[in-house]
Design a protein that fits this description.
4-stranded parallel beta sheet, 4 helices, 129 residues, 16% strand
């Protein structure tokens, strides 16, 4: 059964973008993914684009999106990728990952965050089937 997974954070410019794009790769078409933020930024953090491009993912066209009722209604699973600033969505299967913010971090640190997210989304994709 195809499930819709929504990755959320504050700016939708770092963690949630990496999670969305890496999950889509891991799910291999078995599930859908989107991302959104409670206070979206204007663009994806450049270090995030670099870290994703290193693993063959181009997220340069991503436009940070506001978390709204439509996004919540679409989702079967909501994954909060940030710390306590992430919104809690009642009534949905909800996961809280509490990942560090990659904004302004050196590329080595962003790679470590990317790799952590990659392991988590692969586990989630396998769990969802």
């Amino acid at each position: 059964m195809l499930l819709n997974v929504l990755f959320v954070c504050v700016a939708n410019a770092g963690r949630s973008v990496m999670a969305e794009r890496l999950f889509l790769e891991a799910a291999e078409g078995r599930h859908e993914a989107r991302s959104a933020g409670s206070a979206p930024g204007s663009e994806v953090h450049p270090e995030v684009l670099t870290a994703l491009s290193e693993v063959g993912i181009d997220a340069s066209a991503h436009v940070p999106r506001r978390l709204d009722d439509e996004a919540v209604a679409w989702a079967d699973v909501v994954v909060a990728t940030c710390d306590d600033a992430c919104p809690v969505i009642p009534g949905k299967r909800y996961l809280a990952w509490k990942l560090p913010d990659p904004k302004g971090e050196p590329i080595e640190r962003v790679r470590a965050i990317r790799d952590d997210i990659d392991a988590r989304v692969r586990e989630l994709a396998a769990e969802l089937g």
